[in-house]
Protein 1
Amino acid sequence: MSVGTFAGEPVQQVKDKVHQLLVASGSGFAYAEPEKPVTSRSADDCVVALCDQWYFDYGESVWKAAAEKCLASMETYGEETRHQFQVVLDWLKQWACVRTYGLGSRVPWDSNYLIESLSDSTIYMSYYTIAHLLHRSLDGSKPGPLAILPADMDNAAWDYVLLGKPLPAGHSKAKEMEILRRSYQYWYPVDVRSTGRDLVQNHMIFFIYIHSALFPESEWPRAVRINGHLLLNGEKMSKSTGNMLTLSESCRLYGADATRVALADAGDSIDDANFEMQTADAAIRNLHTLMEWIVSAKQALAKLEETPSGSVQIDDIVLCAADMPFTTADRIFDAEMDDLVLKTAEDYDRTMYRNALKNGFYSFVNLRNWYVEFTSTRGMNPALVRKWIERQVLLITPIAPHWAEHVWQTIMGNTGSVMDLRLPADMPTATNHSLLMAGDYVRKLAKAVRDADIALQKRSKKKGGNGKNTAASAAAADHTPVVDAPKSLDVFIASEFPSWQETVISVLKENYDASSKTFDDKALVAAMGKKGVLKNKKAMPFANEIKKRVDLIGSAAFDRALQFNEADLVSEAASYLKSSLGFARVNVIRTDAVGDGLTDAQAKVAQSAVPGEPGLLIFNA
């Protein structure tokens, strides 16, 4: 403010003072109206009436600070939810909390009024902790096992049970009250409160405020889970349009497990979830196909037990001898299994069921498919196949329990229930990033070879095919191999990085704050420009890739040394590349061991190779 009584004070801080001054001096009066027309649930237009009213003063500074502390201590399963709560805390002040009719508790100091339902139902979950001891019927007409009557639960009794205040001397139900108190303390606080997003701005914020006012911090709610509404096939459910599906109808159409898969896949965020009928249909097929594969795998494993030193094949399942040592591919598969199990367990802990389905089912099956293809020549390790089946059943159990129970008992022959399974005690506590990087390397290599092969085939078709056996670089080809002729692949492995990459790494290290785990991007770009590396179009994409690795594994990412032997890994993957991509021969060539014995095409490709990014040359065998 620049003039007047409050000159020199911030506008934000003097709004209420100016309001009070204008009203007190007669220069203004309080006026309020709805932001827009208000329609009741009975479709009537609402009219504002000036009536006597009691208010909760939610804006009071001490109480608000307690509510903010409560929110800060709670898990909200997403920053968007936390932000919405904080926005409401910032604007919520006085809230009209009484009415003269309807359901609700009488205001203790003014029996003419009832507390309205949103404000009156904020700690009802505390009642759940003792309801089974108070009555056997829903309406309370049948007393519970302690024979406590409604008249016994006076204010003093409630203060003792919920707040721990002393009971009056000689209370007729003192022993029974002790049992209620123990039950309350056993179950409370609320582990998680789930509700719709439309209640964040009123009921849920009251839930936080009232808990912070009545209960000690140890009994404040631990988490809230806010969800949107449920769409059907991307559209709002409506009986009038026919876009409607009840839970019982879905179970009749798709079965309980497929319905649960589609619900899990529908989404977990504060946005509206979307139940797709196609997803439920696909779930039936996917679960059945997976069950058939497990049956075949069990048959192969049983057959291998008869000849443990030999290999076995049933359908597309090829098992190597049981005493074969682990290869790099086996170790990659094992590490990626463990990584997905850890991710899925975390997803379940955070009630992120869509992510749990993705990591614990879709990605888990895709991982198996990759392993089957990669080991098609040598065969899968039987111990890892057993592990994969057991882990798959474990991970899908919360979402498809009936399918999991059938597989666990009927197909796998276990006697106990799948519901008794827990995460294995031998699970690693952290991910093996070096093996994950090796797996990522193999997949990127296969994709690069496949993309290069497709590009060369397109180029050959454009040229019309000349029938000659010519060589071509997958990166920059001067000639094109004949499409229908047998093809070979040279993979060039480098041991040293180009100097410009070392410069980028040096600049990244200089502008990284390990304590905050952040980069100074402005200084980073300026330093790269000063050193002249920005002229290289590959510099920024390379820098961004390293930054992603730093986010994943910290400062260790600056160490460019590969965590695996690249040449050995590619040699092991050679049979996979041959069988999956149709090469007659795959040659792994180290650039530091070839000397001058390279053709011009080979030398050109070898020059482009760097550690972790091999050069590729496709030519007619």
Protein 2
Amino acid sequence: FQGQTVQEAKPRVRELLLANGDGFAYAEPEGLVMSRSGDECVVALCDQWYFDYGEAAWKKLAEECLAAMDTYGEETRHQFELSLDWLHQWACVRTYGLGSKVPWDSNYLIESLSDSTIYMSYYTVAHLLHRSLDGSTLGPLGITPADMDDAAWDYVLLGKELPSGHAKAEELVVLRRSYLYWYPVDIRSSGRDLIQNHLTFFIYIHTAMFPKSEWPRSVRANGHLMLNGEKMSKSTGNTLSLRESCDRYGADATRLTLADSGDSIEDANFEESTANAAILHLYTLMEWITEAQKALQQLDVSPDQAVKVGDIALRPASSPLTTVDKIFNAEMDALTLASGADYNKTMYRDALKSGFYEFIKSREWYVNVTADTGMHPQLLRKYITRQVIQLCPITPHWAEHIWKTVVGNTSSIMDARWPTDLPSEQDHSLLAVGEYIRKTVRSARDAEISLQKRSKKGGKSVSAGVDLTKPKALDMYVAHEFPAWQEDVIGALRANFDAATGKFDDKQVLAALGAKGMLKNKKVMPFAQEIKKRVVLTGAKAFDRAVDFNEPELLNELLEYLKRTLELSAVNVIDLASQGELGEAQIKAAESAVPGEPSFLIYNTE
């Protein structure tokens, strides 16, 4: 066996020793094994049947099946690949316990992990075969167990030709049609501990039994469910049954918390604080929608007048859509697209994030920005409809109440369809404008905080002659050109970026910057890193930083909102491209302005 690896040579050495009579098979436990009765266990050499997993041709089919399957995460796929690599002969029978008898040897039963690997195929016809769990009540086709001989099953599941004159030929056609309608398996959900055996058997047996068109499409593996970050245990009292949770928090809050507990292969975590918060979230949202619905009903009576009910302010239905309206509309579409994709991938935490938490966050921003002018009723109706539909899979009882009792629909939410008025993809331009507004407000707040931290005197924040306790104003400087050094950095990065691999040649980037003497500028490397991050996230288009909207025009449209949210007496938008002479303080403040990132000057008005 010269030249072979130990893994290859080991079984062949064993076979040679046995064949020459130089050795015999012997097995013992790796350590002391005690039975539940307190007896020491030994190994008995018994007759056994094996599945020859790992056989080259069969393994190749299993690998092909896995490659085409969705595993909802690379960790699950990696564990399947490891199992396919190490799994070989598997002892598949036992002599006692529950189970099906081995068809070719009635002395043995199929052991539990090897059994039931294709039972889901039986689900496709079970409702037609019997009405009771034990099979005593026949199904609508009147087929008895005796009618389902090997030829019948070969026809129903494998499509083999049915022998002429079969007593239940017409009924079996119905079974075959039902099987083909439901198969293949779209998703198999099970515990991660079964990947190394039962779920790998599931793949192997399907490839052996069925044509490629009927192989499993996906497997989702999950961990255990923890409670409040700790393992559930009766001994410690850290337990919560499904009934207890429903009694304590209600079905919908329980479902929402389970959705929020996690979707990965790792252990999920049911947090009771999340369940309590879920009750408040759902109640608060219900109250808000109820108030919004009253405002919409008032507007229906007087569509050409503005309406205000509590905190809900609406402008006339005939009013045109503003930039902020369009941004909110684009955000709703983007989040609905995301939550729909998350639901399709059974990623319920992500669906909850995009379809609930972020959806509410976007609405709250819209309400805040339009507080002075009022929301557009068309968008409010769209928000309510989308919000209820997006939450329905997780909180169906809440959604049904809102849909019928609050909104007034006559049909059930269960008859509602997923929104069909969605664009094919997100409107990145409008989303970028929305992020620009948020970022600008954050930057203005940061500028004031920075000013406040620089100097504190007598309880009043004073810096550069600004008393932040007195009425103040803000100048916002808008630039249309980037500094030359930034353009040079982007040029170096663009020249050394491989679009095919999505990677930069860092050595060449440094060489290019060094050749221009730019490495001494402390701003260069942080700026370069930021651009690299953007390119990794969005691709080569991140090199083009040109703003595709009119900054001064947008900011002037938002003046009332900016004054209110920043608590300023005045906000002035200064377009550096058309502005005349600037004072010394203004010139210094304007130096850091670049397209998409205004700079600020805060000063007192008194």
Protein 3
Amino acid sequence: MAGKADTARKTKKAGKEAKEPKVKTKEKTIKRPAHLQITKLASVAGSLPTAGLTTPIVEATISTQPTETHLPISLKVVSGGQLTTGPIVFSSDSSQFYLAKDNSVSAYNVQNGEMLQNFSVHRDSGLQRAAIKKIVAAEDHRVYTFSADHKARLWDARTGDLVCVWDIGACADFVEADPSKSGRFFCAMRRKRQRAGAQKKYVVCRVELKGEPNGVEPVHVERQELFRASNVAGLSVRADGQWVAAFAKFRVHVAFVGDANVKCHVWGMEERVSAIAFHPREPVLAVGDWRGRIVFWFCVDEHAASSEDRPIVRSTHHWHAHRVNAIAFSGDSLMLSGGEEGVLVLWQLDTETRDYLPRLGSDIVGISPSPDHMRYAITLRDNTIRIVSAVDRSLVSLLQGLKFAERAGRARGARELDSDPFTTGLVVHPATHALVLNGEPGRLQVFNHANDRHLASIEVAAYNRVGSGSQPHVDLVQFSSDGAWMATIDSRRTDATNGLMSVTTSYLKFWRLDPTSQTYTLVTRIDAPHAGGVHSISFQPCHRRNALLCVSTGRDRLFRVWELQSVLGAGPNERFVWACRATCGYRNVQPTAAAFSSDGSTLAVAFGGAVTLWDPAVCARPVGVLVASADTPQLKGVAFVGASSFVAAWSDERLDVWNMLTGSVWWTLAMPIQSVYVHPRSSLLAVAAYQVPGSSTASVMVLSPSSPTPLLAIQHPSGVEAVALVPTATKLGRSHPNSEHAKPDPLDSNTLVVLTPSGLISV
């Protein structure tokens, strides 16, 4: 369409010098940047356009920068992120624990899990360069951090002040403190310069950080190379600081570093090694493997320090059925271990007995006994940290992060998440304004983005986590306008080992909110509501009590309207059920999305590149069809914009906004669309789009349906996964502080929430 408009414009201006096209709007003159095109179509009076209708067009373009009446806005990371990927760190007095999230460190109270302090590394640098690799607690509530920018830093955890910075010369992927001397560490670093085909990619060093600002001794670093390894997956240091071990795959390096002559032993394993830990007193190295065994190596003594060929005495402890992820010792006689089973195993070494702490909810990836041996910190793969009493095994405190961040961490490691995709997007609960999105397999997570708190986990489908069978996945979730009803689509998928995932069956479930317990209870389950799966679900806005509709679109080229019906009693004993009221199709095309108008009188269903309009009370035939052009790509979303007369429809390549009063496209945004959120009550829509397909920089815009000019526009360099507009409790009253004629902030009553691919939430 843009090409036709250019041709027409050139014909009218024949003989004149060609100029860049401009269109004057009520706001200002809008120019075209190379990466963004907005097409505004002239109004067409009369009946709604149908397929094949051609409309004269006029092109207009906008910049993704904010308008002159608003401040340029930057996003602030407020929540989300992966809490930790390994054991957490206790303070020396066991009253606090520390964890790193990307480029910041947070201190939490052990008793209640409340955040006490947060301090950030490299506030002016990129997140990747400043990412913290390791935290080490020191005396007097001081904390050492080792970052990806080759820096070691010392912080005062009580105030968040930076005390000192050292340049250690390389990125330390693994760091363990030397228990025998403060300020000395063992670090596994990647070698900077490697010859082509070099096998020793890592060097394990002893690093000593000396001096402090304004101190007698200047700030400097002493580094001693101990040994080299082809790869390193973890480190462990003995309590006396004379032995250090590193492992990767089938090899374990054990080095005696107690004198000037470092003696390193390399032993192979029949099974792949997954965890190691030194016994604090005995000459034992515990080695966990992928078969679930923990093998004690009696190799840490004065004889092993002098002999390369001395055979190792070994003993095996076996309970785990799967890989051992973590091993830790608490005192002289207690060993702790955990893995995929989600069970903390407590080994009494003196009596050779075991105790168990089961049903922790996810794989154990880290175990940290407190320095006073009164508590254990258990890090779980689902972004959860449990602090457990060592006396009675009771839960002391619980910290749960955003489950999507854990999923993002797995995606970076595995490069694919076919078995657990992010399909729900960001859904805002109408009553609590909390974010609802994919959680653990078969579950939804309810998350408060404002205070970085997990609120609830809704089990949609039961799942046996242990084992490699198929797992359920929540595909979609929607709420009624008052939050009293919830509809979900969950499906059971096959194992991904033999190729692409395939949906075996899907379920449509309707849940009712119990006002007393504030939990959702299953009311109706419909097996296979559509053959092949479901594309979308949407509720009709509530205007009458117990008169409610819900529409679902499926891969069977049909959409179905579901109706709430009362089947038993009245008052508190009244019982409800959902039943199919109508089944409709259109030209044998697959429907991909559906939405109700704000008053519930009109139903819009997207079929291919067309938006069909229906009377939900009849659903006999469409009352109108909206088609932007014959080559419109398949739509993936449609929504009425608040109570306005506009309808938004979008595909992967463009966003069209229709004016229902004129039956024409009001404007079009031609960009690769990542995410669209249409506010159900306000006349606002948030759009995340990429300037170029495959680009990592995304444009996040907040627009009014009446104008293509963004009310707000932000460039997000790390990409965007989803966006949402969350109502705020009170109006903020923000505006441009430097202009007497500034317009009110369009987000005065709403907060723009952006979810990044790494699992961070920015506002």
